[in-house]
Amino acid sequence: MSDNTDLENRVVEAIRHYREALTQVENLEREDASAHRTLTSTLLDLGRAMQDEAAPSLKDSLLEIGSAAVSRSDKAWAALSEATARLESARLTLVALAQQLGYIPEVSMGSADPA
Fold first, then answer.
1. What pTM was computed for the model?
2. Which of 24, 38, 85, 103 has the least C-beta neighbours within 10 A?
């Protein structure tokens, strides 16, 4: 019985780890999408500014904003790649433990440890 309890506790911990990894991936996906929207909007604004022969300071400002958005997106993408790898590792661990246990125990959505 003790082995089963230990294994069940490990599955519960694996579920929590998976949920944390999934939350991180979702947050990073939103960050990347936000940076992409900023970049797309900035490129459209820059295109209009070029056609309208806007002031060089406006063009420079738009280029800075675009550069910052690219940098933000690159950072989010790199972090997303790492987080996705952690998510996959957590998934594989959870699957292996759940197969050993034979079922997936019910785990509350809260982050509190079981008493």
1. 0.75
2. 103
